[in-house]
């Protein structure tokens, strides 16, 4: 079975990195897009598709419509690896784009199968897009499990700041960082000072003004990978309070660098852990008091070592996930071929 993968695998975004990991493990004859030019990519789609058996679209792009139309003409089964929901995420971030919505819905409609990157996301899609529920299933992202073999990085390593909290997402409303700010403010007010510090990294967004209004916040904006790792190793707690997060690799990156983690229940990656305690999960991303209580609990007794041990390494490696995705594509070919 020869597969044609249509999607970005170069830019370093989350979806691109996922596509890259699969391409590294798919057979050597797997076809992919080489050009960065829109016109040349379109030509590649037309030229390469006749020589494949099944098509895997990875991520949102307007080129998906051309891919799907050509696949239908050639009777090639086509699966859509869905990393997020553009329509829903843009609405949360107050950036509604009807053209993008139309492209995404058309991609879902024309695809023979839709693979969501977490079980939670698959369930959400079935509820919110019931017209496509019969072709939605989960193809859960993998994780580089070798990172968890690093025993040199500890929660109590020298240089870690017991009063430093880190979060990623900048001013993007979907990340709900303004509620982390409010929770830290509650803790500092109760303590009669500004003992806790919150470092925010990520792109600018609608919530920047609110986030920047707190004196204990340092909003660094976009930073490079080395700076991010250094912050993981300096902070005592990483908080991800997203109201919608289809997977979320940042908590994993924090953990492998010895940083304790607090996640909202909307983070898809929580399904990768065998055991989680109540204090590890934010039930209500909008509840500042709940977030404050759980921040205090995890700063008092961290969870980095416990969560690393509860991480289900055997089932989430990229090797295993690639085998699972390959089998799904084989089944799709058998069903539609």
Q: How is this structure best described in words?
A:
It is a single chain. The chain is α/β, with parallel strands linked by helices. Helix content is about 45%, strand content about 15%. The protein has 14 helices and twelve strands. The chain has helices at about 15-25, 40-50, 65-75, 85-90, 100-110, 120-130, 175-190, 210, 225-235, 250-255, 290-300, 305-310, 315, 320-335, and strands spanning about 5, 30, 55-60, 80, 115, 135-140, 165-170, 195-200, 215-220, 235-240, 260-265, 280. A six-stranded parallel beta sheet has the order 2-1-3-4-5-6. It has a six-stranded parallel beta sheet with strand order 9-8-7-10-11-12, sandwiched between helices. Helix 6 links the parallel strand 5 (about 115) and strand 6 (about 135-140). The protein is elongated, with a radius of gyration of 21 Å. The mean pLDDT is about 95.
**What order do the SSEs take from the amino end to the carboxyl end, as H and E?**
EHEHEHEHHEHEEHEHEHEHEEHHHH
Would you count the extended β strands for me? Answer: 12
Separate helix tally: 14
Beta-strand percentage?
Answer: 5-15%
Rg for CA atoms: 21 Å
Roughly how much helix do the residues carry, as a percent range?
Answer: 40-55%
Q: Pairing-aware structural class of the strands and helices?
A: alpha/beta
Short description:
The protein contains 14 helices and twelve strands.
């Amino acid at each position: 079975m020869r597969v044609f993968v249509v999607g970005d695998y170069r830019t370093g975004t989350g979806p691109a990195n996922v596509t890259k990991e699969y391409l590294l493990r798919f057979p050597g004859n797997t076809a992919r897009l080489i050009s960065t030019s829109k016109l040349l990519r379109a030509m590649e789609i037309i030229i390469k598709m006749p020589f494949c058996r099944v098509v895997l679209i990875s991520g949102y792009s307007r080129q998906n419509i051309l891919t799907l139309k050509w696949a239908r003409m050639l009777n090639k089964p086509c699966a859509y690896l869905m990393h997020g929901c553009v329509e829903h995420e843009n609405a949360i971030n107050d950036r509604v784009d009807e053209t993008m919505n139309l492209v995404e819905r058309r991609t879902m409609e024309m695809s023979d199968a839709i693979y969501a990157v977490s079980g939670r996301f698959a369930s959400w899609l079935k509820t919110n897009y019931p017209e496509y529920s019969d072709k939605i299933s989960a193809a859960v992202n993998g994780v580089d499990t070798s990172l968890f073999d690093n025993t040199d990085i500890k929660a109590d390593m020298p240089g870690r700041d017991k009063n430093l909290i880190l979060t990623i997402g900048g001013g993007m409303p979907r990340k709900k960082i303004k509620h982390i700010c409010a929770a830290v403010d509650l803790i500092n007010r109760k303590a009669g000072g500004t003992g806790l510090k919150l470092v925010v990294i990520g792109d600018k967004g609608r919530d920047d003004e609110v986030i920047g209004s707190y004196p204990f916040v340092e909003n660094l904006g976009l930073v490079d990978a080395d700076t991010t790792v250094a912050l993981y190793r300096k902070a005592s707690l990483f908080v991800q309070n997203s109201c919608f997060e289809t997977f979320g690799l940042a908590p994993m990156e924090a953990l492998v660098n010895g940083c304790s983690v607090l996640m909202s229940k909307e983070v898809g990656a929580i399904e990768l852990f065998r055991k989680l305690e109540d204090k590890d999960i934010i039930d209500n991303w909008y509840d500042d008091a709940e977030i404050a209580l759980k921040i205090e609990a995890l700063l008092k007794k961290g969870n980095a070592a416990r969560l690393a041990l509860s991480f289900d390494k055997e089932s989430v490696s990229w090797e295993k996930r690639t085998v699972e995705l390959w089998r799904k594509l084989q089944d799709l070919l058998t069903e539609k071929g």
